[in-house]
Amino acid sequence: MHGPGPIALTIAAAVLCCAGGFASQQPATQPESDAAAGPAEEVYQPPQGPLDSRIDAAKLTEYDPPPLPQRVIQPMPATYRIATQPGQVPINHDHWLKAHQAITEGLAYLQSNQEPNGGWMSKVQATPTEQPDKPSPIAVAVTALAVKAIIQAQPQSVSQARFLNAVRFIRSARRDDGSFEGGALTNYVTSSVVMALASIDRHDFHDELADAVRWLQINQWDHSEGLSPRQDWFGGSGYGDRGRPDLSNTQTMLDALHEAGLSADEPAVQRALAFVSRAQNLQATNKAEWAGNDGGFVYTPANGGESLASASAGEGRSGEMVASGQPRSLRSYGSMTYAGFKSMLYAGLSPDDVRVRAAFDWIRRHWTFDENPGLGQQGLFYYYHTMARALRAAQQHIITDIDGHKRNWREELIDALVARRRDDGSWKNSADRWLEGEPVMATIFAVLALEEALKPTLDAEE
C-alpha cells in the first residue's frame, strides 16, 4: 500500500500530496500546499503561562527563532509495503534478490526469537541518554518496530496468531492518556507504536492512533509549558517524563506523525522544524553561539547545545573541552544529520531552502556505509535506518558525492548490510551501545533499512 491508508486519512489534518523530488544534485521544485505553513503567530506563539517548573531557566539560551517556510512542500506520503515487482525499485536484479533474501532471513530470525508473551526483549532495559538513574523497559518499542518490519514485507502476517499476539502485547501497554508504557522513554515508545499501528492500516486501531498522536503533540515542548519561541527547547520532544528535548526524540516523533498521515503544515510539525533547525551547524539560520557552518547536525540545541561527536572527539559533550583559544563549537555527525535532513523534508522545507541544501552537501561530503560519521561504529544500524528513510524522502535514486562519484544508495546499502549479516540471518554491532549489541535490536534496524530501499518509487508507480 502506498500513501496514507484509511485510518491515517481520518486522523490527518490534511491529505498529503504526492511530491516531486531532487533532480540529480539540483533539487527540483515540488508541488506546494495550497495553504501556507500557517501564520507565524500560530506556530510561534508567546508563552501561555509561567515557565514549567521542570525546566531549569538558568540553562536556557535565547536567540531569534529560525524562519518558517513561506509555502509548505508536502513530502512524499508514507508507504507501508515493500515493492512486489523488481521494476518498481531502481536497483538491479541481483540486488533485488539479495535484499529480499536478507529481509526474509532476518524476519525468520526475529520470529524465532519472539517470546511467549508476544514481545521481544522483555528482559532488556535501556537507559535514557540524559537520565542514567532511570532505566526503562523497551519491550513495547522494540516489539512495535518488529511488527512494522514484519507487516511491511509480509502483509499476510496480519491474520497469523504470532503476529496478532505481538499486536496484543503492544496494545496492552496503552495508558489512559493515550501514550504507551515506556517510563522515561515514553516518547520513543509511543512514536514506535504509532508507526507500527499505522503500517498495519486497519480501522481497529483508529482510537489508539488518534490518542497516541494527540499525546505526542501535547507532550512537545512549546508555549503551553511557558516557553518562548526564542528559547532553545521550543518545538522539541524529549523523554516521556518531559526531559530536555533532543533531535533523536524529535525526529522519531516526526516519523510517527508522518506515518500517521499528518500534514506538514500542522503547527506541531512546524514547531518541531524550529527545533530541528536549531540543531544544525548553519549560521545563516541558527544564531546559537556554538553553531558552525558545515550544514550537519548535532544531538540537541537545548540547554546551550550538546553533541555526541564532540564527546567522542574528546572535546566534551557540550564542547566545553575545545582547545584553548578556540571558540566553543559542536561537531556534526552522521545519524543526526540524516535525522535533521529527513525531518526538514517531512516538515515541508523546499529542496532549495538553504538548510536542506547545506545538509545535503554535508551528506555528499561524508558519504559512507562503513561507519556512522563522527561516531565510528556506534549507532551504525540506527544510522543505516535513518539514512535509508532520509534518502527515500529526498527521492534521489543516485547521489553524486563530493568527489563526483555517482552512488546508487539502495545498492550500496544492500551490499553493506548483506556483508554484515551473520550466518543465522541476524545482525549485531560489535560496538555495544544503544542496544545494538543485542541481535534483535540490530536486526530490526537492518531489516527496516532494507525495506526502505525496497519500497516503490513514485517514478516506478507512474
Which tags fit this structure?
462 residues; mainly alpha; Glycosyltransferase; two-stranded antiparallel ribbon; two-stranded antiparallel sheet
Can you offer a commentary on this structure?
The chain has 462 residues and is mainly alpha-helical. It has a single domain, classed as Glycosyltransferase (Alpha/alpha barrel). 40% of the residues lie in helices and 3% in strands. The protein contains 16 helices and 6 strands. It has helices at residues 6-11, 40-43, 93-112, 139-153, 161-171, 186-200, 206-218, 247-259, 267-278, 308-312, 334-346, 354-365, 380-394, 409-420, 439-454, 458-461; strands at residues 22-23, 26-27, 125-126, 136-137, 398-400, 406-408. The strands form 3 sheets. A two-stranded antiparallel sheet has the order 1-2. β5 and β6 form a beta hairpin. The longest helix has 20 residues, at 93-112. It is globular and about 55 Å long.
Gist of the model:
The chain has about 450 residues and is mainly α. It has helices at about 5-10, 40-45, 95-110, 140-155, 160-170, 185-200, 205-220, 245-260, 265-280, 310, 335-345, 355-365, 380-395, 410-420, 440-455, 460, and strands spanning about 20-25, 25, 125, 135, 400, 405-410. β1 (about 20-25) and β2 form a beta hairpin.
